[in-house]
Amino acid sequence: MPMPSRDVSAAIAVTRFGLGARPGELAGVGGDPRDWLLAQIRPTGADQPQVGGETSAVRIQAFRAYQTERRDMRRADGETASDRDPVQIAARMLREGTAVDFLARARLAATTPAGFRERWALFWANHFTVSAVKLITATVAGPFEQEAIRPHVFGRFEDLLIASTAHPAMLLYLDQAQSVGPGSQAAAVLARRRRAGAAAGGGLNENLAREILELHTVGVDGGYSQADVTEFARALTGWSVGGLREAEDRQGRFVFRAAAHEPGPRTVMGRSYRQDEAAQAAAILRDLAAHPATARHLARKIARHFVADEPPPGLVSRLEAAWTASDGNLSAVARALVEAPEAWEPRPAKFKTPYEFLISSWRAIGGQPGAIEHLAPPLNALGQRPFSAPSPKGWDETAATWAAPDAVIKRMAWAEGFSAAVAGELDPDTVAREALGGRLSEPVRIAVARAESREEALSILLMSPEFQRR
Questions:
Q1: Which of 10, 56, 175, 235 is deepest in the core (most CB within 10 A)?
Q2: β-strand 254-256 against 271-273: which pairing, if any?
Q3: Strand 271-273 vs strand 266-268: parallel, antiparallel, or unpaired?
């Protein structure tokens, strides 16, 4: 497959592999767009949003303290806390922290000169989704991405898998922190409490084990059974999060609770694992990371994200081969993606998600969102609420999800409002050339040039097929 012209290749590099062109960026790609992309791959991982630096452990401690204080106040007087109560103030502060995280992430996306590196990080953050559907996970969705995902996106997949699985945010999101092995010491204690008439929770929870197999590693067609899910869930028992009653260096952090771990050896997908406390589940994770089905599943998912909803089989094969040859080295997989001729097909096949649409619009004008109000309301209206994927599958990335007529009308309304606010002294003709480069078609160029106002011209550009697709 021949390489497209330099101008078109530069536009593909910035708009398909990246997050959209900022003013002057296409000219800076240089004579070799592939080299420009390859230079963004680095072993230290992705860039970090500029936030206050609160760790997930600090956020979890604050949330647990908020829960305790709220419970104590209700027990004391049974009254509903007012907006002035410290409990409500703490709840607002936690939510505000989440807003700060998302705004910082979006501002990084809107301004970074390394759009491919950022898109690669966002892909893996969506793959290992921790959603803000629970208040506690809302408070740590940002730190989870910063601590467990971004440092590992160009390293070994095994390390990324273990880091994301063991992170408190994932353990809380998928209810692993409370999972108790049915034959464990903790289960025996809970049984005695129930016999005595006391309330006692606990029990084996299979959520995390199932999602790791179905979503994070081998995939739904990876050859595992329900028995494998149960055995893996038993191996994961004991993986938990330190509470406020524990030593300070354990609070809000990963802890292994030996008393909750199901004793005995396990067999998962035909492999046997000896009783080895926390290391038992870690050994299973390492084998899942190295499983051939994981390479196939992830190769297809990467190709689908970057190139087409129905990815070219040749591209999937190239990525799978790079994954297998490198033992899951994600830098090697990223290089294989950039070097694959199928990834440079001139016709744009991917329809932007709402987040991608907003970010690429800010990039096109050389700006960035100044407040969460520039992001949350429009993303909510467009169906992609910040940090709130509807399930552990993450956000869907196919056109069928985002290109329905009603959704396009809502995009148009946002584009008109955005253009009215930012068009100012912008030259829409220049914005169009610098945003789309060699992908700017003659009909769109003429429509932008003939618009009756700057606002109308910018809206036309943002709603053009070339801008909506990448």
A1: 235
A2: unpaired
A3: antiparallel
Nearest 5°: the CA angle 210, 215, 216 is 95
pLDDT in tens, 215-262: 999 999 999 999 999 999 999 999 999 999 999 999 999 999 999 999
Helix (H, G, I), strand (E, B) or coil at 435: helix
Q: How far apart are alpha carbons 28 and 34 in whole angstroms?
A: 13
200-235 exposure pattern, b = at least 16 Cβ within 10 A, e = fewer: eebebbbbbbbbbbbbbbbbeebebeeebbbbbbbb
Check residue 84 and give its pLDDT: 47
- Classify the C-alpha dihedral 463-34-314-298 as positive or negative: negative
Sequence-ordered list of residues with C-beta below 8 angstroms from that of 44, at least 6 positions apart, any chain: 151, 154
Query: What are the strands, taking DSSP E only, across 219-321?
Result: 239-241, 254-256, 266-268, 271-273
Is residue 15 within 8 A of residue 21, CB to CB? The reply is yes
| Radius of gyration (C-alpha) of the chain in whole angstroms | 24
In angstroms, how far is CA 328 from the centroid of its own chain? Answer: 19
Report the number of secondary-structure helices (H) and strands (E) in the chain: 24, 4
Tokens 């329809």, located at residue: 351
- Local structure of 267: helix, strand or coil: strand
In angstroms, the CA 315 to CA 336 distance is 9
Please enumerate in sequence order all residues whose Cβ is within 8 A of that of 103, keeping only pairs 6 or more positions apart, or say none: 369, 371, 372, 375
Q: What share of the chain is helix, strand, coil (3-state, %, to 5)?
A: 60, 5, 35
- Residue spans of beta strands (DSSP E) within 205-297: 239-241, 254-256, 266-268, 271-273
Contact between 420 and 455 (Cβ < 8 Å): yes
CB–CB of 298/157 below 8 Å? Answer: yes
- Percentage of the chain modeled with pLDDT above 70: 95
* Mean pLDDT to the nearest integer, 419-440: 96
Burial class from Cβ neighbours inside 10 Å (0-12, 13-18, 19+) for residue 44 reads exposed
In the chain, the amino acid numbered 376 is: A
270 Cβ neighbours under 8 A, 6+ residues apart: none
pLDDT(93) > 80: no
Helix or strand or coil: residue 250?
coil
Angle at 152 between CA 149 and CA 155, to 5 degrees: 150
Beta strand 266-268 with 254-256: parallel, antiparallel or unpaired? Answer: unpaired
Across the strands, what pairs with 242? Answer: 251
Q: How far is CA 52 from CA 49, 99, 104, 107, 342, in A?
A: 9, 12, 10, 14, 41
* Burial per residue of 388-422, b for 16 or more beta-carbon CB atoms within 10 angstroms, e otherwise: bbeebebbbbebeebeeeebeebbeebbbebbeeb
